[in-house]
Amino acid sequence: MILTRLKGKSDGKLTKQICKVVLDHFDKQYSKELGDAWNTVRDVLTSPSWWQYAVLFNRFNYPFKLEKDLHLKGYHTLFPGSIPYYPKSMKCYLSRTPDRLPSERHQIGNLKTYYLLNAASLLPVLALELRDGEKVLDLCAAPGGKSIALLQCACPGYLHCNEYDSLRLRWLRQTLESFIPQPLINAIKVSELDGREMGDVQPETFDKVLVDAPCSNDRSWLFSSDSQKAACRISQRRNLPVLQVELLRSAIKALRPGGLLVYSTCTLSKAENQDVISEILNSHNNIMPVDIKGIARTWSQDFTFAPIAQECGLLVIPDKGKAWGPMYVAKLKKS
Ligand SMILES: C[S@@+](CC[C@H](N)C(=O)[O-])C[C@H]1O[C@@H](n2cnc3c(N)ncnc32)[C@H](O)[C@@H]1O
């Protein structure tokens, strides 16, 4: 078996193991794409004891007592400074040290009070700048973390959550039921389409579209327990950009003129990030990139961004004490 034991303290729990096939593949690709920055990213990704978990409060069942406790434990709110768009209703707490609250159990009749997440997942949601009453599509929505976060920011007039995989669709429904009050759930449409068809099914419908695309998912990939499957995924990896471009094409069709689209992935891969966006910009003359670099300057206290020039978009890279990401975000406008 080609697995490497993880460094990190043993706390009696099952220790995660790194899949060496994947690590070797990442070493080759990311040392080229990220240069020296890859060394730190590699250290963080391979040390789960350094990972951090942000706490997104549920405004529909606000945990006042927990808020006090987190303050006492040294947590701070994300985005305390002034940024162009900051919905006051969205509260996310994080600590600079690796700490993880237990996940809440779902109890029928009781909404959960918080959601644990990688804080960088909020960047695509915030980049979308959702306002009350807007029509929004979450094209690849399961398990629902970003749908929940969108609903913390504003009350959309219409939220459409789509997911292609039927098992994951069930997980999405469960997440929505655990966090969102019933009257609001009734105003959310959930569908099980191949996202590549959405543009034809609902053309020029949405003010905002989020494409949180299927991608290599570097963090979980590193810990694949089956090295044969991992090797197979590595060889299939080159097909992902094709799917990502097709999903974006469909999302652009579903967007109304003047609407905004955010594309995100949780991989460092240039082929799945920058190259996908370049392909879209080169093939659509009605699509313009929206500059989000200013947002990165404001958020640099809590996140580390890749030092390499990104043609458009931002890449959050995991760092010590800021173990968030990988998360790529690009924002586009349809003219
Ligand atoms: C990165 S995950 C989305 C995570 C989600 N946005 C969240 O924050 O919880 C990508 C999702 O896209 C789904 N997917 C894969 N192919 C798809 C397709 N052709 N159309 C729609 N969704 C697809 C996957 O099943 C997966 O659930």
UniProtKB/TrEMBL annotation:
GO terms for biological process: regulation of mitochondrial translation; rRNA methylation; tRNA wobble base cytosine methylation. The keyword Mitochondrion applies. It is found in: Mitochondrion. InterPro entries: MeTrfase_RsmB-F_NOP2_cat, MeTrfase_RsmB-F_NOP2_dom, RCMT, SAM-dependent_MTases_sf. One of its GO terms (molecular function) is RNA binding. Its main location: mitochondrion. The keyword Transferase applies. Residues 45-335 form the SAM-dependent MTase RsmB/NOP-type domain. GO terms for cellular component: mitochondrial large ribosomal subunit. The active site is at residue 266. Keywords: Methyltransferase, Mitochondrion, RNA-binding, S-adenosyl-L-methionine, Transferase. S-adenosyl-L-methionine binds at residues 140-146, 163, 194, 212. Belongs to the class I-like SAM-binding methyltransferase superfamily. RsmB/NOP family. This is NOP2/Sun RNA methyltransferase 3. The lineage of its organism: Eukaryota, Metazoa, Chordata, Craniata, Vertebrata. The gene is NSUN3.
